[in-house]
Amino acid sequence: MQLLDIQISIETEGWPAEEVLEVMASRVLGAAADFLRDEEKQPFPGMPVEVSLVFCDDDTIQDINAEWRNQDKPTNVLSFPAFPLVPGGKPGPMLGDIIIARETVAREAVDLGKSFEEHLTHLMVHGFLHLFGYDHMEVQEAERMESLETRILASLGLSDPYAGQDPL
């Protein structure tokens, strides 16, 4: 059974073509959903859960970050769950929105010595986990979320993005 219905919106130039992002999102979020279902026993409804991916620029994400988080600066990814969900809780038909800023992703990828695609993959997984109620505000939460991210990324053939770092 297909677990996700992924909706994509490209709000600015410079992103890969929509078809490329659709294939990537299906692969990445599909792997994350399969992992949560199979390894974490995450319940899913009997129908695909809709998730929205918005690909924007730094100015747009800065505006959203200022309005919703009182942080007037760009960030790499923001997640907005459609409904509050705790880890392991059953999502409704609409999971929520993941918003990603191109310039920040590109800068961070260079700083980390990773490809744009590899860093974007990590941020998609990170944002997706937030929609399921995972967070990284406390050390224990961060360790749990980072462990899930690392294991999901490994299933996609990518290395641990947190190697050698303390939990957020």
UniProtKB/TrEMBL annotation:
Keywords: Cytoplasm, Endonuclease, Hydrolase, Metal-binding, Nuclease, Ribosome biogenesis, rRNA processing, Zinc. Binds 1 zinc ion. One of its GO terms (molecular function) is zinc ion binding. The keyword Cytoplasm applies. It comes from the Bacteria. InterPro entries: MetalPrtase_cat_dom_sf_prd, YbeY, YbeY_CS. Its cofactor is Zn(2+). It is found in: Cytoplasm. Belongs to the endoribonuclease YbeY family. This is Endoribonuclease YbeY. It comes from Rhizobium daejeonense.
